[in-house]
Amino acid sequence: MRYVIGSVLACAVLIGTASTVLAQQADKPAAAAARASVNLNTATLDQLEDLPGIGRATAQRIVEYRQKSGGFKKIEDLMNVKGIGEKSFLRVKPLIVVSQKTDKPTGER
Which of 10, 59, 101, 109 is the most buried if burial means most Cβ atoms within 10 Å? Predict the structure, then answer.
């Protein structure tokens, strides 16, 4: 009898833990979507540092790359920055965008 009760309790704990983990994973995309996207071509050092895994030195290299190359053409160009590999890129990918800065006011050709 004790064995049966112990098994039932163990199953209940496992189910509760699995439910909690699944709920946390389901919240991650929502949390990422709730964050504002960071434009690699206009972001400040502080905004870049807010990205997961990006410290001050890497943020500075991102800005330097942006200045030397004339800006990012696509988000994958971020991997051209020293210190940003595939793993780092995949971590920040849902949080970044690239849009070109224009000198012309909206509506001009």
Answer: 59
